[in-house]
Amino acid sequence: xxxxxxxxxxxxxxxxxxxxxxxxxxxxxxxxxxxxxxxxxxxxxxxxxxxxxxxxxxxxxxxxxxxxxxxxxxxxxxxxxxxxxxxxxxxxxxxxxxxxxxxxxxxxxxxxxxxxxxxxxxxxxxxxxxxxxxxxxxxxxxxxxxxxxxxxxxxxxxxxxxxxxxxxxxxxxxxxxxxxxxxxxxxxxxxxxxxxxxxxxxxxxxxxxxxxxxxxxxxxxxxxxxxxxxxxxxxxxxxxxxxxxxxxxxxxxxxxxxxxxxxxxxxxxxxxxxxxxxxxxxxxxxxxxxxxxxxxxxxxxxxxxxxxxxxxxxxxxxxxx
Length: 321
Fold this sequence. Notes:
membrane, PTS_EIIA_man-typ_sf, cell membrane, kinase
C-alpha cells in the first residue's frame, strides 16, 4: 500500500483532498501538508518527517505537490533523497489525485507515479477541442520594455548587480517568475555559506534555474572574489542572500551595494514580524541598521508587481525583543 502526502502552497492541499473525498470518499492513508506565509523549507521538512515517522519505513510514499521547484517540492526532495520507496510528482490536480487514490492499493510506486503524470496531461481538455491536439509553438510575446540601469551598476568595470534580494528560500518560484523577468540578468547567484557546501540543497536550487539563465550557489567569500574579477565586467547578475548580515559582509569585502530588496525572511521562534513575509531577530535588526548607516536604500517587496515599502530606521526602532 502506498501512502500519499499532498503538499501545496497555502491551503490548496486541504481543499483538493476535501474535494477528492466528495467523489472517492475519505482515505486514511492520504496526508495533507500546508505551506503558509512565514513558513520555510525547514518547516515543511519537519511536517513531512512527522508524517513519515508514523509510517512503517518499508512502505512506499508518493508526494503529490503543486509546483516543480516550489518549496513543497524542494522540501520533499530533501526528504526523498534519504528515504527509499519515495517519489514526487508535481502539478497535482483533482483528476490526478482521484486516479491515484483509485489505483494506489494495487499499483506499485513506479506505476502510481506514471499514472499521475499521464492523467495530469490527459485530463486537460478544451470545450471547443476536447481531443488532445498536436503541440503548438509558443506564442510570441511582445518585446520587453526597455530595462533601466541596474541599481547596483558599477561604471568601473565590474559586474552589475541587477537585483540584490534577501530571501530565505534563495532561488524559487517568485524569483523565477517575477524578478528574473523584471530586471535585466544573465545569471543568478544564490549566496549562502551553508547552502553552498550542502550538495543536496545546492542541486535543488540549481535545477529550478531556467535554461536561458546560468545559476551558481556560492559562499559570501566567493561572491566577493567574483565581483572583483574583471573577467565578469558588464555581466548583469541577480544576487540572492538569506540575511542582511551577509550583505554587510559583502560591503566590507568591497562590493558596491546601493539598494536591497527585502523579499522574504522565514519566521523562527522569538522573531518579530515587520511585514507578512519578513521576520527578524536581534542580529537581523542590527545588520539592517548597519546597512542604513552605510547609505543602503532598502525596501520590502515580495514580487516586482508589488509596491515598494521603504525599510526605515523608524520601522526598525519600534521593534522590541
